[in-house]
Design brief:
Shape: globular
CATH class: Alpha Beta
Oligomer: single chain
Number of domains: 1
Helix content: 55-70%
CATH topology: Phosphatidylinositol Transfer Protein Sec14p
CATH architecture: 3-Layer(aba) Sandwich
Order of helices and strands: HHHEEHHEHHEHEH
Length: 194
């Protein structure tokens, strides 16, 4: 699967496609009563349903976005979690690397901004391999990332950092954590580009 970083969807196309992704997720839960316990397996089943009914390349382009005319990549976990499973690890990884490479052709470094709204410890365990591979397999994250901004920082961030420590230890000093002001900061990040 090849991605073009120059013909990415515009913000309106992204919003429309995100609505379609959420509709596919809702369809799954309408057909399969949402579990109160043992949610992990059902969430992975839902992700596979969404993958089968939607275009993976478009979903990934809605998840990781380069802010135009900047060195910033914005990554939205809220979208990623709707389709995340081991089968998407490689395409997500390749796309992020393409975004980084496109930025590094213009800038000496990049910033990575991540919206972790609703990220839980079970999500850490569910996606640990995907997260680790992105950091472990690409030196750009440690050498050329100048800043990591975490929005909607989970209250369990210290536990998350411990679980992922071997993969993220070199980027932790570059991290800034945002809590209550996250929505305003994300809005400001995009205000000139929507």
């Amino acid at each position: 699967m090849e991605f073009s970083t120059t013909t990415a969807m515009n913000s309106e196309e992204q919003r429309n496609y995100i609505d379609q992704i959420n509709h596919s997720k809702s369809e799954f839960y309408n057909e399969n009563k949402k579990n109160v316990v043992f949610k992990n397996k059902q969430k992975l089943e839902c992700a596979k349903h969404v993958n089968q009914s939607m275009d993976l390349a478009k979903m990934i382009q809605c998840t990781a976005v380069r802010i135009p005319n900047t060195n910033i990549i914005y990554y939205n976990y809220m979208i990623f979690k709707t389709y995340a499973c081991d089968e998407v690890k490689e395409p997500v990884y390749r796309y992020i690397i393409q975004l980084i490479d496109s930025i590094l052709k213009e800038y000496n470094h990049f910033e990575f901004h991540v919206n972790l709204k609703s990220f839980t410890i079970s999500a850490v365990h569910r996606y640990k391999n995907i997260i680790a591979s992105i950091f472990d397999e690409n030196q750009s994250f440690t050498t050329q990332m100048s800043r990591l901004c975490i929005y909607h920082t989970p209250s369990i961030i210290d536990t998350i950092n411990k679980v992922l420590y071997s993969s993220i230890r070199d980027i932790l000093p570059k991290a800034t954590y945002h809590h209550k002001e996250s929505d305003q900061l994300i809005e400001k990040l995009f205000e000139n580009y929507n």
